[in-house]
Amino acid sequence: MPYTTRRRLVTSAVAVALGATALTACGSGSGDSETESGPVSLTYWTWTPGMDKVVDLWNKGPGKKDQITVTVKKQASGDTLVTKILTSHKAGKAPDLVQAEYQALPTLVSNDALADISKNVGDAKDRFADGVWQQTTLGTDAVYAVPQDIGPMMFYYREDLFKEYGLTVPTTWDEFAQTARKLKKAAPDKDLTTFSANDSGLFAGLAQQAGAKWWTTSGDQWKVSINDAATQKVAKFWGGLVEEGAIDNQPMYTPAWNKALNTGKQIAWVSAVWAPGTLTTAAPDAKGKWAMAPLPQWSANENRTGSWGGSSTAVTTDSGHQEAAAKFAAWLNTDSDALNALAKESGIYPAAKNAQTSGAFLKPPAYFSNQADFYSKAAEIAETTAPSAWGPNVNVAYTTFKDAFGAAAKSKSDFGGALDKMQDDTVADMKKQGFEVAE
């Protein structure tokens, strides 16, 4: 990696340190002070289904009035899109707008691919929970994207089977462990849940809830703390339950897992607000039998949740119309008509607080027709989202998690070694790329 790139990465590294002071944005910001005049055409890369129908509302309404037209270009998601954005940016040909998962923002910002749009969207801050907004500011006074959808984590359980086995919905993780053991004793053929080593995002969200800060900075260096005390606590907890056989150790999203949910062999699931869609497909016979509650806490006086999923709308530094692009990004994620369309056409759970209990969210999901307050409760939980601390090589950490934790879960061995492997591989990759890493 060229030294100039490394220097930008080190400088912008402070962006992910929680509570960091403001820095000069590393983006070129060439469009920050521009005044748009005449027709403007923007291109938006996104993987969200139905986005073209949502964007039509803009093109026929506010966009038409402001002479700003947006064209949707459907893309793949995840690392594939990040790579494509960086490749296009290197050639100076990135689109005006991109959809970006929160954990990808540090990578894109570090590579000078995203513009600081704080002058154009800063007043949108109050529309979002602090922990959500922080993910798009990276802890600075800059704003690198507007939150679009979020995945606050929750606890899902079979109401009928909890009643049958005399179980109480756990409010702490200690109670969760006791519930798992009580169920296993009463019904050896059933499991409260499973630890899935193919879901790195789930583990990251659980660590986030516990207070983990995987990537921060120390002076002008990155500091990687994937095996910090908070994450060790999470790993030890789940590893202990797997080792003693109190919960299952099989991965999620397999035919066997679907069958376990559908037949009541697995009677609870630690998931996120989007779980109803998954349950509708995985466990159709259990419709109306599941309920949702807040995630168990590490101590009775705490009240916070982690995130599993979510994305934002960002403006690139290559855009020649950053002001216009930022105007669209703000509209897309704060306007009531746009948010209702996103919910209807794309099935997202909006990051904007005002949309979480209105429009499509006035009624519970059809699968949870038995829980009338599903979305009002979800909104309360979303408000407690803990801050996150993402870094520039989340993909490496996630890949190692799947390999190391997968082996540990399969053999029911100590998760501590797997966590250390995750730490070591992440640090080694950062050094290989030329990052300054504090020891």
From TrEMBL:
<dbReference type="InterPro" id="IPR050490">
    <property type="entry name" value="Bact_solute-bd_prot1"/>
</dbReference>
<keyword id="KW-0564">Palmitate</keyword>
<keyword id="KW-0762">Sugar transport</keyword>
<dbReference type="InterPro" id="IPR006059">
    <property type="entry name" value="SBP"/>
</dbReference>
<keyword id="KW-0732">Signal</keyword>
<dbReference type="Pfam" id="PF01547">
    <property type="entry name" value="SBP_bac_1"/>
</dbReference>
<keyword id="KW-0449">Lipoprotein</keyword>
<keyword id="KW-0813">Transport</keyword>
<feature type="signal peptide">
    <location>
        <begin position="1"/>
        <end position="27"/>
    </location>
</feature>
<keyword id="KW-0472">Membrane</keyword>
<keyword id="KW-1003">Cell membrane</keyword>
<protein>
    <submittedName>
        <fullName>Multiple sugar transport system substrate-binding protein</fullName>
    </submittedName>
</protein>
